[in-house]
Write a structure and sequence with these properties.
- By secondary structure, this protein is α+β, with helices and mostly antiparallel strands.
- Helix content is about 20%, strand content about 10%.
- The chain binds iron/sulfur cluster.
Length: about 80
């Protein structure tokens, strides 16, 4: 399952550098590419963007539900 940044985003830019997959791009609100988000599986124990977000605006993406195994496979396909 990928994560999604909702409209509570204040465009503070705190999350961009936290992402191990470079999945986050600036915008209003900021955008997480679901093709790149592994919910940090493969890199960290928990989603790093959620940890650093001061607006608490990063939620589960309703359209991208994947198992831990699928997320790990995605991580390896991104990082080769
Ligand atoms: Fe990037 Fe992890 Fe946030 Fe997904 S959960 S966008 S991989 S920092």
């Amino acid at each position: 399952m990928a994560l999604l940044i909702n409209d509570d985003c204040t465009d503070c830019d705190a999350c961009v550098e936290s992402c191990p997959n470079k999945a986050i791009t600036a915008g209003t609100p900021y955008v997480i590419d679901p093709a790149l988000c592994t919910e940090c599986v493969g890199a960290h124990d928990e989603p790093q963007c959620r940890l650093v977000c001061p607006a608490d605006c990063i939620v589960d993406h309703p359209d991208f539900r994947e198992s831990k195994e699928q997320l790990m496979a995605k991580y390896h396909s991104i990082h080769g």
